[in-house]
């Protein structure tokens, strides 16, 4: 028997793949990276059915990490980098000029959302919100809020879009303008004023000072430095009284994300255990904003050291107050990162999906994509979202 050429070997391997069917084909598809499922579904009708059957039986619920990198000096220029935790691969998406004119004249930002984080663009005359995690499709022709804001919190909460804080101080309204809240009802296409943010957030009403999370019912807001905590219900347009987690005086920075089973996750960084740096995660009741009994875990030490590697050494105690932490997540998992030093990467966590004593099933280190290289000039915004075939099919890669 003669030696097969390279072309014959490739043809033979392709024919073997096309011969796969049934459970064997579906098992193979479970190993295929999500981004490759689109071309896989176009191989044949049998492959198309197998891809969708595989996703029904083995849904990929873990959220993707989204990095939006703004390139100086033009803040309108940015690139999106997305990490798929199922295959541990990065996807870099080039930014193209939109056919919608307002998007080419105002910077796009990432916002929190109950269905996943999305890009939005806000100008004096228009507000645009992306319909997918990558900004490939946009919902346009939305009137802007009545109050002009800078660095406001903007989040999707079910059928509402909530914009809070960041208001520009006007002599007519005084300090309350800074804490003003407006809600946009997507079902009616109208804006309404709502109860202002609690006075306990005075001096910290900008998005930079707050960590936020959104469910289908409520917007949860936490002050990063103090841990002052509250939630807003857009249906009733009101806030609940603020609270503050007790007995955690060693925490220097706070963050909040949604968790599983109608819980919230609160993440804190600070010095403990012989003044060593620690990142802890608590499970909190969404309604009462109280820590569930015994529900606290620590991030593995080696991952803490990677997130805060610039703070290692003998002088760590002198700089503990400068540590910062942020988290973005869904009910299945999420990412913890150091917003002041994004070059250190992020830590992925997968949540337990039952009533176990543990909160986190596994931790995993996520380095930044090689496509970013060493050029981290400019701003990086971070988010996460579940990604499906419909989101990927709209991309031109």
TrEMBL record:
<protein>
    <recommendedName>
        <fullName>F-box domain-containing protein</fullName>
    </recommendedName>
</protein>
<feature type="domain" description="F-box">
    <location>
        <begin position="17"/>
        <end position="56"/>
    </location>
</feature>
<dbReference type="InterPro" id="IPR001810">
    <property type="entry name" value="F-box_dom"/>
</dbReference>
<dbReference type="InterPro" id="IPR015915">
    <property type="entry name" value="Kelch-typ_b-propeller"/>
</dbReference>
<dbReference type="InterPro" id="IPR036047">
    <property type="entry name" value="F-box-like_dom_sf"/>
</dbReference>
<dbReference type="Pfam" id="PF00646">
    <property type="entry name" value="F-box"/>
</dbReference>
């Amino acid at each position: 028997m003669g030696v097969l050429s390279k072309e014959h070997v490739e043809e033979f391997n392709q024919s073997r793949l096309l011969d796969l069917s049934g459970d064997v084909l579906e098992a193979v598809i479970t190993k295929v990276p999500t981004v490759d499922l689109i071309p896989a579904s176009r191989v044949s009708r049998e492959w198309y059915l197998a891809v969708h059957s595989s996703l029904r039986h083995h849904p990929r619920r873990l959220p993707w990490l989204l990095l939006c990198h703004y390139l100086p000096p033009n803040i309108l220029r940015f690139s999106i980098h997305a990490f798929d935790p199922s295959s541990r691969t990065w996807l870099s998406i080039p930014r193209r000029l939109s056919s919608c004119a307002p998007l080419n004249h105002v910077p796009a930002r990432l916002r929190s959302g109950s269905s996943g984080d999305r890009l939005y663009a806000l100008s004096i005359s228009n507000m645009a919100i992306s319909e997918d995690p990558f900004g490939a499709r946009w919902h346009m022709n939305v009137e802007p809020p009545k109050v002009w804001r800078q660095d406001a919190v903007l989040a999707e909460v079910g059928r509402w879009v909530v914009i809070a804080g960041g208001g520009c101080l006007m002599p007519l309204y005084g300090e309350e303008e800074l804490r003003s809240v407006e809600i946009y009802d997507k079902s009616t296409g109208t804006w309404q004023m709502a109860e202002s943010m609690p006075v306990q957030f005075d001096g910290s009403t900008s998005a930079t000072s707050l960590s936020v999370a959104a469910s289908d019912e409520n917007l949860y807001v936490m002050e990063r430095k103090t841990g002052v905590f509250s939630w807003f219900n857009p249906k009733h347009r009101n806030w609940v009284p603020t609270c503050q987690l007790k007995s955690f005086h060693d925490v220097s920075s706070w963050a909040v994300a949604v968790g599983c089973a109608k819980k919230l996750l609160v993440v804190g960084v600070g010095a403990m255990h012989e003044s060593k740096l620690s990142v802890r995660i608590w499970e909190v009741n969404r309604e009462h904003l109280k820590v569930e009994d015994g529900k606290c875990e620590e991030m593995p030490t080696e991952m803490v050291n990677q997130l805060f590697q610039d703070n290692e050494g003998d002088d760590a105690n002198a700089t503990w107050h400068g540590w910062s932490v942020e988290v973005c997540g869904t009910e299945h998992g999420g990412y913890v990162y150091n917003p002041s030093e994004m070059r250190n990467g992020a830590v992925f966590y997968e949540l337990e999906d039952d009533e176990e004593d543990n909160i986190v099933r596994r931790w995993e280190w996520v380095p930044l994509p090689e496509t970013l290289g060493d050029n981290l000039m400019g701003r990086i915004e971070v988010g996460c979202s579940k990604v499906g075939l419909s989101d990927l099919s709209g991309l031109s890669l």
